[in-house]
Amino acid sequence: DTMGSSTLIKTNNGITQVPLETKFFGKRCISISGEINDESAIDFTDKILELNIESCEPITILINSPGGEINSGLLMYDAIVGSKAPIRMICRGKAYSMGAVLFACASKRYMLPNSELMLHQPMLGGRVSGNASSIKSISDSMLETKKKLNSLLARHTGKSEEEIDEATNFDHYFSPTESIEFNLCDEIIEFSKVIEFVKEAEW
């Protein structure tokens, strides 16, 4: 976990060591880092829930993810679009596949100058085996999933599902400028802006 380091803070009892993640959480800043799976999705939605209970002030999310499990990603998607507190998502490095879908659905979407997004069709997890009927069932399910993801991306970019389908027919990498042109991103920001976002927030 990229937020696994710790920092020292002053308390009434002197100096205490706390995880950076805890300090950032107190500043309404959380991360999506690494692969998206059930565990990371549950942890993420718990944090969004807690921050919404505390206040409706904006939540800053720092994302750097290669993507991962679609169902887990869709749980995170539900939390982001359902959050009463506005979500500002910052891509630091990369947001690929399901990570790019999560990035695109935030209230405000920012990219650091050297980060990138990548969209493609849903991938099969594991090897496909079984009889013809079960393989057809997997194929139908994947087409449904593809349609659902295309529909979500169309909703958040203002593009048609046909345009999304065309753009995701291959591994399509988007620079920050290309992301803005495709309406996956709102603004390219410097790291100093990220510091401002996190510094201004406090419970």
Question: How is this structure best described in words?
Answer:
The radius of gyration is 18 Å and the shape is globular. Strand 4 (59-65), helix 3 and strand 5 (87-96) form a beta-alpha-beta unit. Helix 2 packs parallel to helix 3 (70-82), helix 3 (70-82) packs parallel to helix 4 and helix 5 (132-157) packs across helix 6 (161-167). The protein contains eight helices and nine strands. The relative contact order is 0.14. The longest helix is centred in the last third of the chain and has 26 residues, at 132-157. With 203 residues, the chain is α/β, with parallel strands linked by helices. It has helices at 20-26, 38-54, 70-82, 98-104, 132-157, 161-167, 176-181, 191-200; strands at residues 6-11, 14-19, 29-33, 59-65, 87-96, 108-111, 116-119, 172-174, 187-188.
